Amino acid sequence: MRSRSNSGVRLDYYQRIVHRLILAHQEPVTGLFPASNVNSHAWIRDNVYCILAVWGLSMAYKKIADQDEDRAKCYELEQSCVKLMRGLLMAMMNQKDKVEKFKMTQSPYDSLHAKYSSKNGLPVVGDNEWGHLQIDAVSLYLLILAQMTASGLQIVFSLDEVSFIQNLVFYIESAYSIPDYGIWERGDKTNHGEPELNASSIGMAKAALEAMNELDLFGARGGPASVIHVLADEAHKCQAVLQSMLPRESNSKELDSGLLCVIGFPAFAVDDAQLIHNTKDAILSRLQGKYGCKRFLRDGYRTPKEDPSRLYYERWELRMFENIECEWPLFYCYLILFHAFQNDKRSVEEYASRLEKIMVRSEDGILLIPESYAVPQDLVGFEYQKPGSQLREVVGRCPFLWGQSLFILGRLLQEGFLAVGELDPLNRRLGAQKKPDVVVQVVIIAEDNEIRDKLAEHDLHVQTIAEVAPIEVQPARVLSHLYTYLGRNRKLGLSGRKSRDVGILSTSKLYSLKDRIFAFTPQFADLSRFYIASDNELMIDILKGEINFLKSAWDLLGRPLVTLVLKRIHLDQDKIPLAMIQTMRKLKSGYINGTRVMLGSLKDFLNTSAITDLSFLGSTEDGYPDRLHPDVQTYLDEHLLRSFSNRSTMNLRGGQLRPRTLRRRMSCKGAIKKTRSINVDSDNLGMEGPSPLTERRLSSIVPPPWLQANKQSHVSVFATTPEEGPASSPLHLGNELSIRENIYPVDPHQSRSAIDRRSEFVRQQEMPKILIQRHRAETNFADTEVEELIAMLRETENLEEQGDILQYLVDTQGLDFNTAGLGFKNKSDDNANANANHAAAGMLEEGRVVTVRDLLKGLYEKACQQKLWGLVRHTAGMLGKRVEDLAKAVTDLLVRQKQVTVGMPPNNEHTITAPLPEVELRQLIHDAYGDDESTAMLTQELMVYLAMFIRTEPQLFHEMLRLRVGLIIQVMAKELSRTLNCDGEAASEHLLNLSPFEMKNLLYHILSGKEFAVSSVARGNLSIVSCKSSRVSKKSQIGLGDPEGEDALIATIDDRQGQWLRRRRLDGALNRVPRDFYSRVWTVLEKCQGLAIEGRVLQQSLTQEMTPGELKFALEVETALNQIPQPEYRQLVVEALMVLTLVTEHNMVPTLGGIIYVEHLVHKANQLFLEDQRKVQGDATLCCAKIKDGKEQQQAASGMLLCGGAAYICQHLYDSAPSGSYGTMTYMSRAVALVLDCVPKHGEMECAIS
């Protein structure tokens, strides 16, 4: 026998250790590891980590196999890995029904179990007796399965197992939006069993999805049927959410050492080197101790203060665990691996020596990793006084196999038995390296020869759909349908992919199917979609955004390929729109918005594009893998015929029948306008108190005397009232009394302000006489009206007028009213004959019945063509349309920790805190706005734009926690009224008539705070343009007397005045706060008994429960601030809080005393400001700082400030810069000094305001 080389001897030593500590515990039947000698449960996560050392050792043996016995050892170790991975696979396959159910419900009770019996692989606790939903565990399993398969192990044996694993991929692909219990099985850290979104789960899922993509589970011996497919967009969504969360772990855990496995081995889920660095530094600075790292702040697990008799914690007791959390040596093992992969030998040695000091020696001299170290009961007091000073003792299992396994891997790397590449055969560790620039390929295809020729006139040469054959061009929905066949398996009862979404990354590849090649147009170009799709400029804008997105997100082989089809429907008055021509020229130039592009034809790009094989569409289960699945065959045959044909639009005007001459011209003018609820005029931005009535409009709410008289009789009225402009709304012609209950009497808590519900009277413009038919049945009369209306509808060319008539018909007759069979609904028989004559007046189209809904659809399509956006939004709302991507858009915002509110503050705001299904969302939005369909539609639209921005420009949303869409709409209208110098009603009219593209543009300017101007374009459409001089420096206006008196003062004198007011208004409406604002408020709260804001008190006890950087704490503060209806006032309150934080941070006083009323500070500052103004004769002497006389007193009492400042604060204070001797911060600081008792009144104090 030859003597062993040194390396061989050393490896044999490790083999003995692995055998003793790890393999000795492996159950012979299932291959699983029990948690300990006394607990036979096998956790998925712990089992996968345990086997890593065995896998690593097997690869080390494979390299030095200089004797047969080494090859045998290598094989033996490999088979242990296979045995364990298959044991877990069998346990999960026993729960295949759960996988199927979870795809639909995503409920924690339908999730795979987190642990199984190590004896037989069966469940050990019930569905609701444990926090089973741990996406990171299933993801870790898939990730290691992929790595092991890539290293040459054969773990999956049959195609049924392949389809089960494909379904596990669907199980984790929505990880970015599914709250789970996370790596510590706790969910929220109070351990009350509430799941939350965890960054560690999302990161692990992202890693698993990327590792599984295009992986052949049969290794080198497989074929197309054993390949796993992942939609790249799902992995990218996980990445985007992960990046937005790090270094935060979840809402209740602001930091977690578990993130080490996401930024380093095994997941390598973060591509941004800076973010990896920041996350690691945050963990080391706040969680590292002498004995390892704490899991997270205020983690009570196994601490001496924990009450072992109950699972959950009381909210107040979390503070007790601060500084005495257990420290886990496990994380030193992670850090060793992290630095080994970074090739940082110094750090590896540093952590190795730290680890050696805290490991425990067994009797036979083996070093063991204990589970954790806790402070002994009797030393807790000392540890509180000086954190990190006391000796700790081992608690929990020893050896802790999860840590032991990682420790052995680290040693194998340190001693050179393994190279880092062997532990990562899929090369995930290279993800954070810089990649070359992506070139986006763009292909434009014409629908037919005519369009091709039109493009040729502009020197743009393209092919038609027919000419690109044999490549077939299909819309994205075809691809999404084909993907539903992926992972179907009858034997296992698995149904394939459920989500219908295919993103731009999936449509930017080519697909091969047998001998055919498919190209798919992107999802945003699908015209069956929403009205936004008929705004060419917006579609171009979205295209530019998507190209930009591809530049940063594309990481597949080959170049991305965007295919666009130019259709008839895109033409504008039979011409190709100018915007499109310009964009195509830009694409031709090779650069667009900083992204490199190539414009060409499909066949040019065949060799450079990514091509995916759709082999899963074969009928493998029936034994014909080479034949298409019969359902797919029929679907494709049907679809290829009609994929790009156009629908004909309905014609509104029935040509055959001419109406009888009208006896009198009635008008429903303004019926649509009445439903609007955006209120800009009032200075506090539509945030009036509970009964927002102004005298001018009272008449429309107090019913006239003749309506109160005989309530039993059927009344039908067409009337005008005095003082009502043409903006009054049609009467509700029902069979009961003609006023709808929800309008009269006015209930302030109804969904919309009473003013806008003036739906009581119909105006006759030509004949303002009041018709009262008291005691006759209303039916005939109503019929004649409806009949005349329909006649008018056919007569008028004006779409706006048609809209008003239809709005009236919907209000009175309902959407399903049949305009052909007038008067037959709910009417008595004796009228039937009379009504039969009127049927001729109905709108008959090709001899069939036409309901009001059909007419509306026709009007909607016409308005889309003619680009009358106000009408489009309104009719879309009446038809109950919803943006297809609404739920997705809201989810995109929520998973990036932005809550969304809809409705107009303060009374009707609804907050959305968790993803909702499409239908519920639409219902919620429409309830929030009552009858105001236009604004409800606008809300849906804005949510989609916000989601676009947060995907492409997340920096716009920094320091914003809630997006209050209602408030944003009001600020948009307010900004328009300021720029166009018009009143509120005109501004909201302009706002609703902006094209979708301009709407997105305006929203962008408001989010980014850029100045903009409005220029008018053809057809009265407005266009938003950026001003060059966006940063006008604001000189202090104080001390400049103003010769022209009050009027000139109130009309803004020049652009600079009003700039700070505008900024405060924008920041207040967007809920923007200074950096680290919430954590600084926490320090203030710690030093006083509470902060009162607008009647809500933030109690000091919040600091007992939550840590400073915790998102839950930020949301509490935010909720209190959102009680303040006026945005600019809210912003001053934020400034006052900032001054308080300065007081605490400079440790001027030991405590701030009792409850601090923040508004008192603001009002005190206002008083001081006015006193100064009187002294220097400043601008405010014209309004608030006037020497008071009787009239003034009276005005102040009625709640009106002369200058229109909100909440009794002078407009000029709102418009002062924060800094400077007359700045708001100066006054706030003086107010703090005066109001708080704790600040010394006399003597010198060091005072520096930064």
Automatic annotation (TrEMBL):
Domain GH15-like: residue ranges: 8-966
Coiled-coil residue spans: none
UniProt-listed SUPFAM superfamilies: Six-hairpin glycosidases
Keywords: Calmodulin-binding, Carbohydrate metabolism, Cell membrane, Glycogen metabolism, Lipoprotein, Membrane, Phosphoprotein, Prenylation
All residue ranges annotated as the Phosphorylase b kinase regulatory subunit alpha/beta C-terminal domain in the record: 980-1174
One cellular-component annotation, GO: plasma membrane
GO process terms (BP): glycogen metabolic process
Gene3D superfamilies: 1.50.10.10
Pathway stated in the Swiss-Prot or TrEMBL entry: Glycan biosynthesis; glycogen metabolism
Any GO MF annotation of the entry: calmodulin binding
UniProt main location, coarse: membrane
Membrane association type: Lipid-anchor
Function: Phosphorylase b kinase catalyzes the phosphorylation of serine in certain substrates, including troponin I. The alpha chain may bind calmodulin.
This protein's name: Phosphorylase b kinase regulatory subunit
Organism expressing this protein natively: Drosophila rhopaloa (Fruit fly)
Gene: LOC108048482
